Amino acid sequence: CGACTVIINGRSVNSCMVLIPQVDGKNVLTIEGLSKDGVTEIQEAFVEEGAIQCGFCTPGMVMSTYYLLSKNPHPDEEEIREGLSGNLCRCTGYKKIIEAVKRASGGKK
Questions:
Q1: What is the pTM of this model?
Q2: Domain ranges of the chain
Q3: Which CATH architecture has domain 5-104?
């Protein structure tokens, strides 16, 4: 479902599919590490666009957005949809999530 998305050595990974010994000595970035200095621009964009409802999928969506924007700072809508394709949300219908990614990428003010 993508809710557990983390970045391991620069790759977006569903942490539920990784055993602890597999990450020994690797760089693991979680939602908590992403926001260690406060709320990130990505998180602010999700709030501003109303792209959060129950909150279950939000960490994974934020991490997938972080990964997408690290590889492609200005994605178009098709690239955003592809970047979020591993994440499921049953509350928002994705429109607001896509708008949040656009805002985070500077494509919407």
A1: 0.93
A2: 5-104
A3: Orthogonal Bundle (1.10)
